[in-house]
UniProtKB/TrEMBL annotation:
Residues 421-770 form the Exocyst complex subunit EXOC6/Sec15 C-terminal domain. One of its GO terms (biological process) is vesicle tethering involved in exocytosis. Gene3D superfamilies: Dsl1p vesicle tethering complex, Tip20p subunit, domain D, Exocyst complex subunit Sec15 C-terminal domain, N-terminal subdomain. The gene is EXOC6B. Component of the exocyst complex involved in the docking of exocytic vesicles with fusion sites on the plasma membrane. This is Exocyst complex component. It comes from Bos mutus grunniens (Wild yak).
Amino acid sequence: MERVKMAEAESLETAAEHERILREIESTDTACIGPTLRSVYDGEEHGRFMEKLETRIRNHDREIEKMCNFHYQGFVDSITELLKVRGEAQKLKNQVTDTNRKLQHEGKELVIAMEELKQCRLQQRNISATVDKLMLCLPVLEMYSKLREQMKTKRHYPALKTLEHLEHTYLPQVSHYRFCKVMVDNIPKLREEIKDVSMSDLKDFLESIRKHSDKIGETAMKQAQQQRNLDNIILQQPRIGSKRKSKKEAYTIFDTEIESTSPKSEQDSGILDVEDEEDDEEVPGAQDLVDFSPVYRCLHIYSVLGARETFENYYRKQRRKQARLVLQPPSNMHETLDGYRKYFNQIVGFFVVEDHILHTTQGLVNRAYIDELWEMALSKTIAALRTHSSYCSDPNLVLDLKNLIVLFADTLQVYGFPVNQLFDMLLEIRDQYSETLLKKWSGIFRNILDSDNYSPIPVTSEEMYKKVIGQFPFQDAELEKQPFPKKFPFSEFVPKVYNQIKEFIYACLKFSEDLHLSSTEVDDMIRKSTNLLLTRTLSNSLQNVIKRKNIGLTELVQIIINTTHLEKSCKYLEEFITNITNVLPETVHTTKLYGTTTFKDARHAAEEEIYTNLNQKIDQFLQLADYDWMTGDLGSKASDYLVDLIAFLRSTFAVFTHLPGKVAQTACMSACKHLATSLMQLLLEAEVRQLTLGALQQFNLDVRECEQFARSGPVPGFQEDTLQLAFIDLRQLLDLFIQWDWSTYLADYGQPTCKYLRVNPVTALTLLEKISREMKDTSRKNNMFAQFRKNERDKQKLIDTVAKQLRGLISSHHS
């Protein structure tokens, strides 16, 4: 029973579920019925559900049938009305069809016209669109065409500007076109091409500048010379006008196109075609000779391309290389002034260009770079000038070189370069100039002294007298009173030497010009150089003349007279220097002239040479002496050679009348002393081992002749018997032997009142031994003591005794 009840309960639940599903099917949209049906199939009672569904369908059919039956009459009426409408509709359809056919027939032409209009409107729209696109593309094409034209005509900076506009303004508007892509791809290539071509122009410019630096420098130095001449004319008036004409017109290349020709033209290469006409009143400005547009173009192009630093480094590197080449002097520069001038022109040209670049560009070169180049140039230039100027031996070339260096320094100073070191170096060259002058004047003095006749200058008229006075400051009242013809005491070399000293002073003054030296410095320089001329050059020349082998006593006497007058003229030289330098001699630190000392030394040397020359003449006469030391004959007169010697001395001392008294007296005393000494040596020479008293008597006659000459007073001014004292040694020695007064000599030896005070025991012993040897030689028949043979032994014993005593005196004296 329970099972039946459970089955009934389940059946009721199922029936209720099916009823629910049917309601859902009826009320739910067909699209959402799927889940409902699925719940049926998920269950196990779908058969029963189908039965339920069929039952529900039949129920609905019955309801529909009831409803239709209820509305049937209305439906029939509606059908009837519909059939009537169908007939009317058919008529309407036929009318419409007929109307449509007529309309189609009538509108066919209109459709054709409209189609044509449509095509025209389409073409018009296409044309308008095309025109609009072409209007966008045409500026691009025009700019590109302009770019190619500028590239073709080498106008690279405008081309670069055009390229910039094309790339940033025009191409972005038409970037979707294929030809634009081609242009965009070519832009980097065009930039590189412009960059390379502009660099090529710069290289041509640099090469041309290197070749024409000397022309640029020459023009700049001409300008500086003209300005200096103008300054001298207007007495240091400030310069009128600009000294840099080209700097007043700055290049406007940033804003305007540069109208240039082919890069192969002279203008583009950097040098303008300017004829060098010396007759032109105005020298063109140094910068006016140079077209700097290649530099500016290249600088601007590299700046626009963002490679300015690369360009600056390249330019500076190349110019440094060119600077080193310019500063390398040619090996033969020292031979001519043109060599120096070309060297200076190149340096000036180089720095004129760099100075212009500094002032007309912004940062291509800076002051530090210019200063570095100038320091290098200054050191190398000074070193080169020191080396090459040392080879110059011509003072005129050194002077011209100095003037050229001053012009070189003044030119560069105009452009703001410091040139103090150049003027310092000129002071070094000044010393070298002085040396070359001294060498030149050494030759001049040598020629003057060699060509002089060493005779007083004769004058036969007032005109000749004034001419000599005009050349040399000489005043002598007695000479002026003398009638013509008359003679100056000095020879021609005095006025010639005096004038050459003045010429030397003028030459020194020329070098000091334009060196910016004070009057004191110029005066000091001239005085020092003149002192060197006097103390070294002129002194050496005089000494060489005095020391010549073939110079005679007359020439030496004239030299003494000449140097005396030159010594007196030194004060006039002092005045001359004072007049040209305006520095008084009393000024502190003023150098004094050493001319007085120079001429005194020369005079003393001439005096010594006179003494030496006289002694040599005396020696020459003494070489003619031919004494027979073994003679037994007693002579009655002096030897011939000595008579001739005395005659020579008399004539010589007669020439000494114009010499200062002391010179003549010293020469005479020196000659007499030398004669006495030579005679003594002749008597005592070792080769004469024996002599007789007869020979001694002849020798005594010669000494008496000498004493007679001394007593005659050949030169005035000696006190009585002073000159005879030169022969006192000989006289006492000869008297001792001739008078054989040994007892007196030996007894009074060493006493101040001794009669034979000047006889030296050694000399007496030497002469006594010679006589002793002769007496011992019994083989000689002419022996003076032959007639006294019986007394020979006693005499010999006496001689031996005297000799022994003399030796005792000698030994006691030495001890």
